[in-house]
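Model it.
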Amino acid sequence: MLSPNLTTKQTLLLLCFSVYGTLFFTLPRNLTQAAGHNGWLSILIGSLLVIPIIWLISEVGSSMQEKSIIAYCLSLFGPVFGRLFALLLLGPLLLFSAITVRIITELFVTLILPETPLELIVVMMLILRYYLAHGGILSIARWSEVILPGIAVLMLILFVLSLENVEFQRMLPLFNASMLDTLKGSLGICSAFSEMTLVLFIYPHVKNKSKMIHTMVWTIIIVTFSFEIVFLVTLGTYGSAFTQRLTFPVMELIKDIAIFEFIEHLESPFLALWIFLNLTKGTFTFYCCCTGFQDWFGTSHFRGLMIPISVIIFYLSLIPDNVYNAIVEYEIAKGAVFCFYALLLLTILWLAGKLKARRSAHEENR
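Modeled.
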C-alpha cells in the first residue's frame, strides 16, 4: 500500500493546472466560434454540467480502497477484460499528453525560435517531463507550488494591463446565440473539467480523501472564474468576429500589451512561465500514463516504462502537419464527446463496483 503524501492544496493545484493547461490559449476562439457572445454563459453552464462527473469520481475513488484506477479495473473485470477496459482510460491520456507538448512546442517555435526544428523542442520538453516525473507525484506537486506565485502575478499583470484595450461595446450584445449553440460551447468547458478524472490515477497518494469532492468543487470555482476573465477580456479587446480567426487569442492579447508606451512584446516572459504551467500539466499526465501502464503490465515500478512511453508520445505529437486545423479539429471533437466519454466510463465503473460489493455482501451472508 502506498503512503498518502499529497496535501489538499497540492491536489487542488494539480487539478487546476490540468484543467487550465492548454485550453487557456485557445478558450476565447473556441467559445466565440461555438456560442458567440454567449461564451460567458457557456462557461457557467459547462461548470455545472460537470457536477455528475465529479460525484462519480468521488464515488469510484471511495470504492477503490487504496488501489489506482487501473488496478481497480483489473480487480473488477478480471485480467483480460479489465486490461481492455483500462485501455479506454489510458488511450486518451497518451493523446492528451502528445497534444499538450505539440501546442506548447508550436508556440515556442513560432514566437521565439522559428528556425529551430520542431522535433528538437519536442525532445527537450519530453526530457523535462521525464526528469520531473522521475521523482514521483510529490515532486510534481511541489513543482506546482513553486510556480504558482509567478503564474498568479503574471496573470494579474496580463489582465490589468489588457483592460486598457477593452471596450464594453465589443462585448454587446451579451446574448446573441441560440440556447443550442450555447450548450455546444458549454460541452467544451465540461470536457476540460472532465480531465479531473486524472485524480483517480493518484488517488492512493491523496491524504484527505474525504475532502476530495470539496477539492474538485473549488477547482471548478477557481478555473471558472479565470475562464470568465480570459473570455471577457479577449472579447472586449478584439470582438467576436476577429477572435474567431485567431489561433491563440490570449497570445495576441499579450502581444498588444505596452508599458509606458515603450516596453512592448512581453510575450517571451509570459510564454516562458506558461511553459512551466504546461510542463506541470504534461508531466502530471505523463506520470499517470506511466503508473497506469505499470499496473496494466504488472511491472514493479513505473520508471522502466518512462522512456518507451516518451517515444510513443514523441511520434504522436508529430502526426499533424497542419497544426492549426489539427488543434481546431481536436478541440471540437474533444469538446463534443469527451465529457460523455468520461461520464460513460465512470458510470460503468461505479455500477460494476456496486454490483461487486453487493455480491460480496450476499456471499458473506450465506
